[in-house]
Structures are given as structure tokens and as C-alpha cells.
Give the backbone structure.
Amino acid sequence: MSNPSQTRALWVAVAGVPLLFAAIAALQVKIDAGTRAYTPESEELLLRSGTALKKMSLGYDSLLADIYWTRAVQYYGNRAGIDGAKFDLLWPLLDIATTLDPKLIIAYRFGAIFLSEPPPAGAGRPDLAIELVKRGIAENPEQWHLNADLGFLYYWRMKDYPNAAAAYLDGSKNPKAPVWLKLMAARITEKGGSLETSRMIWSQIYETSQDKIVREKAMETLRGLRAQEDEAQLDQLAQEYQNRFGHFPASASDLRTGGLLREIPEDPAGNPYVFGKDGKSRLDPRSPIVIPPPLSPPPEATN
Amino acid sequence: MSATVGPVAINTFREAVRDRVLYNLVLFALLMIGAAILVGEISIGIERLVIINLGLTAISVFGLVMAIFIGVGLVYKEIEKRTLYSLLAKPIRRWEFLVGKYAGLLLTLAVNTAFMTLGLAAALFYVGWRFERSDTSILVAIYFILLEFALVTALALFFSCFTTPMLSTLYTLGIYITGVFADDIRAVGDFTRNPAVLGVTRAIYYVVPNFHNFNAISMAAHGNAIPFTLFWQNTLYAALYVAVLLLAASAVFSRRNLK
């Protein structure tokens, strides 16, 4: 049974502790406001050596790798899409995460995307992305997905079709690899840089990836590639229209009234294509579709 | 095994429970709940990996802290409180007292680890709504962590037989850290190619307990199978090392002047 003084002490604590915490929080806000002025804006990585961190982790390197991977994700997420944003610490963070845990497959795969995407979506460093994925393949030779990622990087980001074909071919030697890797190698050797090949690669990425973000990106690119294909066909029809009527069509309706089209074509987002004075078809400015940058012409087919 | 060891062990366990040692489970539960809810929001594709890594790391760290800080006081506390004298007046030999104390703390750690394992399993189920066959590696990793506790507890008990808790903590921690770096110490000797240095580093490598052997956290997190050979080799290694330490501790304690 508690006496009155104990009860009083309890009530003082119940009321006093939250009040004191509120005062502490308010004081911290003041301190933050005062110190922010002379806190350097640039972030730093105190330790850049993954090997040193691995030693210092006393065997808990796996958890540390997860922490560094999460830091890399946060670092990328805070910068992606912002014009002029720098990604200076992205590579060191990924380097540390994969040195601490060389089996952290997700860090190689997504890290390569973060590094290779052109600014402002990413660091615009496909060379580092390739280095990262190559390191992943060396540490995890059983992971054919990494070979496919390497092939994609060479194909899409570097336009280096011989190396892209070689990467897919290497991956196809893995007994667990699906047949399409070998087909892809043959296809790139024969028709690298073509729209069909690009569509095939992105379709495979869409079908084989489990990740929502990657699938969305693949779908977005596939829609862009379809629009690119539509534009190429519309340009041909516009040229034919010009041959018949002596001037380029002002809109897709002109092509229909001229008997060259049955229906007015729409891009994958449902917007009709528009025509410039030069007779070239374009996406409607309101369309959310993004046409990927053109690839280099296909290399000479090898026997 | 002597019949007096059991009661000492049970009483050591009860004492630990009375001292609210198992309260650390609350912290562990909060850690697991927090990780299970938050990781998916702040990272990509590593929900399961983080739960396993964090769970196993927490089991290991919490257990090591308990093994060291309780282990170093096992004998010292009994002498300080003068309860040892009344105990030794009974038909119990000093080595039986030591082994009983050791078994009691190990039982406490095992019970603590068992509850944490349940917490880890619950968090793992929460993030995936299923268990995978490869999750058995997690149980093997936890068994290795228990072997590590057995070794550290024996080290702490050994030092507590002849020195103060503060120094015992320092010595146990020192040997633990040396044991974690055992591979690197040997590598230094191999690198220098100096026969004297090589001899010293090799001696350290074989004398200090090689805690690197017991680290299977990464393998378990990635769902890799842990070879059965490693299972029995680690068990034997820990058993031999614990036997050495308990023998040495008994020898020191039986010669200690308690007057």
C-alpha cells in the first residue's frame, strides 16, 4: 500500500517527465537551428575501405552490408530526378556494401541501375555499373541474372554490341540459365541496335524481373519503343502522302482521308500522334510516353 | 557428472531470472518488430536478409554481453557475498561448484536464445508469410552462436576464478577480439616470412579460440547450406576448448585460498 507522499511523487513524475522531454526536444530544435548554419552541407563517408570495415565489424559484416546498402538506396533516392544532383558517394557506398557482403546480389543489380541511369535519374556512370556487375559475376558465378544485366548494360548504355553478345553468351553457359540468353547473344551478334532486339531485351527484363520498379521501367521503355516503331511507320506513310498530294499531312486525319490509314493511330498512352511541317510524326506534347535515345546502327553480321 | 552440479546449475539459472536478465528479450522483440515494419520502407529487396542478419546479430551480441558480464561475476559474487563459504561447507567439491555455475549460465543463455529464435521466426514469417527450406541454415547458425557462448562463458568463468570482474571482462573481451582476428594474425606472420614472427603468430592462432569458425550468419542469411562437416567440427572444437578452460579453472579455483 503506498502512502500519500509516494502517490504524490508518482503524479509529479507522470506529469513532469513528459514536460521535461518536451523541453528537451524544444531545446534540441534550437540547437539544430543554431548549428545548421556552420554544418558543412556536403556529406562525407568517414571510411571508404570496405575491407577495413569488414575487419572492424567483428564478424557482423552481413548486417553492416545491409546498412550500407540501405544507405546507398537512401542516398540515391534523395537525389534521383533532381537536376544537377551529384552522386559522388554512390559508388563508394555500393563498393563498401558489396565488399562487406559479396553475396548481396540486390546491391549489384540495383546498384548497376542507379549508376548507369543518365542524369538526373542516376549517376550516368555505366562504366562503374559494368565494373560493379563484373565484380558480382566473379563473386557469384552461379547468378546468370548478373550476366544478363551485364549484357544489357553493354547493349543499352554503352552500345557495345560485341561485348553485350559475349556477356549473354557467358551467362547462357550456366546450366540454370534460360534458353533466351543464348538467343539474345545470337540476336545481338546478328542485329544489334535494331528496334526488334531492343524490344526483345526489354520484354525479357519485364518477364523475368520480380521487382515492381524494374518491371515498371521495362514497361515504360517498351511503350517508348512501340511509339518509336509507330513513328517510323507514320513517317513512311507521310512520305507516301507527300508523293501523292505534293505536301506533308498536317495530322493523322489527313492520312486517313488520303486513304493511307483506316484508323487514327494512338500512342501507347492513348494520345494521337502529331505531325510537324517536315512531315515527321511526333508524340503529342501531353503524352507521358518517353522515346528512348536511338541506338547505334547494327554491326556487320558475323558468319 | 556429479549429482551436485545440477542443483547449482538450476540455482544459477533461477538467480539470473530473479536478476531480470531475461528482460533483454523485450528489447530484442522491439528490434525485430521495428525492423520487420521499417526495412521494407527504407530499403530495396532485403527485407528477409535484414531480418535474418539483424536477428542473428542481436542474438549473438545480446548473448555475448550476457555471457561476459554475468560470467565474470559468477565466482566473484559468491565470494563477495560470502555465500560460497556456506555452499562449500556442504558436500560439494569446488570443481562441481564451478561446473554447476557454468552449466547454469549456459542454460540461461540457451533459454534466452530459444525465445529470441521464436521472435526471429515470427518476424521472418511476418515479412514473407512463409518459411523456406533453406531457413534450416538459420537454426544451424544459432547453434554455432550457442557454441560461441559456451566458449566465452568458459573464458569469463576461468578469469573470474583468480581476478576481479573488471579485469576478467577486459581479458575475456581481449581474447574474444583476438579470436575474431585469429585468421588475420596468422596472415600477418605468413606475410612477414620471418620465422620468429611466423612462430609467434602461428602459436597465437592455435592457442586463442578461433571465433571466426562459428560465424555462419552470412551463409544463413543467403540461404546457403552449412556443411555437416563444419557442424561436428565446430561442436568438437567448442567441446575441447571448454574442457580445457573448465579444467584450468578448476585447477586454479581448487588451489585458491578463500580465507
User: Anything to note?
Assistant: The two ends of chain A are 96 Å apart (CA to CA). Strands of chain A lie at 274-275, 281-282. Residues 212-245 of chain A form the longest helix (34 residues).
